[in-house]
Amino acid sequence: MSIKSKIKSFFSLDEEFLEDELEAEYEQLPAKPPRNERKNVVNLQSVQKTAKLILFEPRMYAEAQHIADHLKNRRAVVVNLQRLDHDQARRVVDFLSGTVYAVGGDIQRIGDHIFICAPENVEISGNVSDYLVHDENLHKGL
User: Fold this and answer.
1) Cα Rg for the chain, rounded, in angstroms?
2) Are strands 114-118 and 106-111 parallel, antiparallel or unpaired?
3) Beta-carbon neighbour count of residue 127 at 10 Å?
4) CA count, 13 A, side-chain hemisphere, 33
5) Is the model's pTM score more than 0.85?
């Protein structure tokens, strides 16, 4: 046998051996699950997350922490500060402004002593104050 035929037979044996090995490994692989079991399909209409808007009318500054907890839990909060004196109301707004900044949200005045605080997952658009001024002018006969 020539060297050429020896090399040829050597490589052809290796190819057959590799093919046999690959076939054996393929047979050991687990069977594929049926097509409907391979995908996690969820009907989007069946998944409904309820968004909450919390309303607060604090009577003391100590309640600001409770309001901030709702913001940290990604809930929007409307705060009516009419029952607080001016200094306490200002302290509550300062505290909530810091909380809103920490959660990447937004705080806006939407009325006289009324604020809306929203975390980053809630977008506030529009400006209610413009409408309030317009309504006050209508009531005054202007």
Assistant:
1) 34
2) antiparallel
3) 11
4) 5
5) no
